[in-house]
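Table S2 (continued). Query chain:
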Amino acid sequence: MTYSDTTLVIPTLNEKHTLPLLMRRVLGEYPGLQILIVDDGSTDGTTEEAEKFYSSGRVEIINRKRLKKKPGLTASVIDGIMASKTQFVIVMDADMQHPHEKIREIHVKLARGSKLVVAVRETVIKWPFYRKVISKSLSAMGYLVLFARGKKLVSDIFSGFFGADRKTAANIISKNRRRFVGEGYKVLFDLLKCIDARDEIEISEVKYHFGNRKFGESKAGARQVVALLRSYVT
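Corresponding output:
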C-alpha cells in the first residue's frame, strides 16, 4: 500500500529529541507519505534536525518564525492543512504521545469515505490529578458549547491527533477563518464548532492509548486556556 495521497502535518515547538525518532518511523513504515513540518519558533535545533530528512524527497518544512507569523499551535496546524496538496491530511504531535501505528487506521477510514477521523484517547497514562481536573472541566464546557449549538459531537473533542479530507477541512477553515483562535491549541474543537450539522460530513473515530512524554514538557499553559475559552464564544 502507498500513502502518497496523504500529508502528515506535524506542528513543532522545541521537539529536537523526539522528532527524528518519529520521522524515521513514519518514513520507514508508510511508503509515499508526505510529511510537512510546521515549526512555530523552535530554539533547540528542531528545524535543523528536520532538515536532515530532506534527502527522502518527502519532507517539507514551514518555518513560521522566519515568515514572521504570529505564534500558535492552531495557526501552525492551519498553515499545514492549507499548504498541503494531497487528498488527505493527518495531524499529529511530534512528542511521541500519539502512536504512529494509528496512521494506518486513520488512512483506511479516510479512504473509505470519512471526511474527518478523530483519534480518541482511550486511556491517558500517569496524568497529574490537577491536569485531569482541568482537562475534564474544560472538556465538559466544550461539549456543552457544541451541544447547545447543535453541532456534531465526537468522543474526544480536544484530540490533537486526527485526519481529514483536505478539501473539506480547507473549505471549513476558509469560510470560518476568524472563528479559529490561532494562538489556541485545540484546533479540532474549532473545526467541529464550524461544521454545519446539516452538512453530510461523515465523522469516524479510532481509539488509542495516549503515551507519556519522554522529552520536553507540555506547551499548554494559562495563555492557551484563555485562548480555548475564547474559542467557546467565537
